[in-house]
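Hey, weird one. I pasted the GNAT family N-acetyltransferase sequence into the form twice and got a warning about non-standard characters only the second time. First submission, copied straight from the form history:
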Amino acid sequence: MDRRIIRVDIPPAHAGITAALRRAFSPVNEDPCERDFSDLLRRLS
């Protein structure tokens, strides 16, 4: 089974969600912090 990358245009309104998902799935360089999580929740609200 071959894998292909499918690219789609993301509306500007979804930029915050996209950035949050990138941060969530990026390699962790430091311990998670409660402040970072509350900041993420504040941005998504």
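That's the output from the first submission. The warning seems to come from a hidden character in my clipboard, not from the data itself. The helical segments are 15-25, 34-44.
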